[in-house]
Amino acid sequence: MRRLFSLLTAAFLAFVLPAALAAPASASGIGARYERITGSGGVALTARVYTPASTGKHPLVVLPASWAVPTLEYEIPARKLAERGYVVVSYTARGFYTSGGQIEVGSANDVADARAVIDWALTNTPAAADQVGMAGISYGAGFSLLTAAADPRVKAVAALSTWADLEKSLGANDTWSSQGIALLGAAGKVTGRFGPELDAMLGNVLANEREPVRTWAAPRSPGRKLAQLNANKPAVLIANAWQDSLFPPDQTVELFTNLTGPKRLELAPGDHATPELLGLAGLPNDTWETTYRWLDHYLRGTDNGVDREAPVRLKPTIGGAAREFASWSALTASTSRRYLGDVNPLIGRTGDLGTTARTGWTHTANGGFDTVADSGTVMLTGGATQIGLPVAGWLPAVNRLNAGVWQTEPMARRTTVSGTPKLHVTVTPSAADTSLFAYLYDVDATGTGRLISHKPLTLLNRKAGAAQQVDLSLQPVLHDLDAGHRLVLAIDTKDQRYSSETGLGERLTFSSPASSPSYLDVPLG
Questions:
Q1: Comparing C-alpha atoms, which of 166, 165, 167, 176 is closest to residue 437?
Q2: Is 235's pLDDT higher than 60?
Q3: Residue 396: what are its φ and ψ, rounded to 5°?
């Protein structure tokens, strides 16, 4: 475990610190200074304050720093904002580096800290009380949304690589994101001081106790603050990565869909915080350019047209030019229901994904074995997708004794998969607790597959040997399947990214009863 912590911490620092330590951009006349701002309970927060060269009142942007990163992270974006006429206050969250207190992960104290920073700025800088915004990456993004739900003074938010539901982030479908939790825990231990609630939560993860984690996560989840967000109606920009291994996109899509105020959603290839990373170093970056335009319009009143653009802007899942949609639901024009068929020993024990129902068959997989089908290492494999190297595997090598595999016919023409694939399948576990992992691949004529979506699922306290009907929404996708390529669904019981309840010697049987045929609903654009 210590070796895993070291590997994941190194990966985290390799992605984040180069931008965080970038040399400050020069800006004539911009004032920049460090301050100690008193937060909730008297905790002192380390902050960096930027003021424009011009006199008079200015809109305010508060930038809470990311997890395990100091306020220096935003040096270049903060100066760019100050050049555009903003007062900017970036601060290191409680518990990290030279800020006081302990790490609390979006607690009431963290929200009170952000509100105290706003109070301080309105008193001690030329910031305008009716032009307050917040922006941030990851930890700072979550803080921004939580604060906007609590404080109606926040008129605009740019939430980059944000979380919406911490329970789904830590344990989607009752399956622990073990690598992600290890990465965050290791980075936090190196750079900060854990509070007792955070220590207890991590202890519950190690003890495989889910209910206390749910109780801890709920008030820290912006998606649980919809009523407050919709009452305050801040203008919310959400920009995340399709392959985000810490905060997968389905939760942010759900939050975006349910917001009723001004909103915009952008998704791009990459992993956690990687689409916006270059912007921290001052290099051209679509995410930060949208952020500047978003704040300019909703805080400064600039007529830059951002409010008239399509609210959903997506770059395809594993690469391609951005596409715009009038709403999230507009991604999907129709749905193709593909039924899981019996495995065929003549084609390597692979079943069809056909257009007519196939029932009465069974296929049993040995549990506890990993296969070629896998989601990859957190941060690394998703980050590689951003530079054109998606998670790939040779699908004929998936051991059919340890997995189920089903495929469509080769596509007659280019086909766009656009939306959320949904799996309905009957499984019979041999144990009370069982995990399974579903993967959707684009596979070419050579059998080489590129992963476009996946999702874990754990069944708890079920009757061993009893059939269970499973409905599983995979991660959303926007992907062009070339003519001659197939969609391939693979399901196994182990994945390096997650914890699995399926042990060696256990078995998982797939079936398709006549009363409820197994199928995959494929959304088409």
A1: 176
A2: yes
A3: -60, -20
pLDDT average, residue stretch 12-41:
66
Angle at 225 between CA 222 and CA 227, to 5 degrees: 145
| C-beta contacts of 355-362 below 8 A and 24+ residues apart | 357/512, 357/517, 357/519, 358/512, 358/517, 359/512, 359/513, 359/514, 359/517, 360/512, 360/513, 360/514, 361/511, 361/512, 362/509, 362/510, 362/511
Q: At what angle do helices 196-206 and 210-217 cross, to 10 degrees?
A: 150
Mean pLDDT of 282-299: 97
Residues β-bridged to residue 470:
425
Question: The domain 20-165+223-329 belongs to what CATH superfamily?
Answer: Alpha/Beta hydrolase fold, catalytic domain (3.40.50.1820)
| 453, 495, 255, 416 alpha-carbon torsion, rounded to 10° | 0
CB atoms within 10 A of CB 276: 27
Please report the pLDDT score of residue 25 as a whole number. Answer: 41
What backbone phi and psi angles, to 5 degrees, belong to 41?
A: 70, 15
* Burial tier of 232 (Cβ tally within 10 Å: 0-12, 13-18, 19+): middle
What pLDDT, in 10s, does the model give residues 482-506?
A: 999 999 999 999 999 999 999 999 9
Tokens of 437: 């992992």
Residue 455, Cβ density class (10 Å: 0-12 exposed, 13-18 middle, ≥19 buried): buried
Average pLDDT, the chain: 94
Amino acid identity of residue 207, one-letter, is A
**All structural domains of the chain with their residue ranges:** 20-165+223-329, 332-524
Name the token pair of 192: 């900060």
| Cβ partners under 8 Å of residue 391, min gap 6 | 243, 374, 375, 376, 381, 382, 384, 385, 450, 451
d(CA 205, CA 184): 13
Q: 332-524: what fold? A: Jelly Rolls (2.60.120)
CA distance 93 to 110: 8
